[in-house]
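Lab notebook, design round three. We kept the backbone fixed and only want residue identities now. Task for the bench partner: fill in a sequence for the structure below.
Input structure tokens:
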């Protein structure tokens, strides 16, 4: 996983957490759900990159 990918995924996760918090504060369930979705998407991307890295190390 490149450093740029890690930074982008971390930024996406932080944006998602911000949306979730804003949704909780304002009572906006849609925004809260969107934030959770952004965080989940970021986690999946990170997991995919880790799997790719594991296969690269075997070669």
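Proposed sequence:
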């Amino acid at each position: 996983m490149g450093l740029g990918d890690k930074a982008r995924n971390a930024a996406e996760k932080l944006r998602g957490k911000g949306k979730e918090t804003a949704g909780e504060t304002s009572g906006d369930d849609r925004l809260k759900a969107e934030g959770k979705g952004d965080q989940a998407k970021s986690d999946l991307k990170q997991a995919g990159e880790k799997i790719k890295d594991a296969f690269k190390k075997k070669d």
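Keep this in mind before ordering anything: The mean pLDDT is 90.
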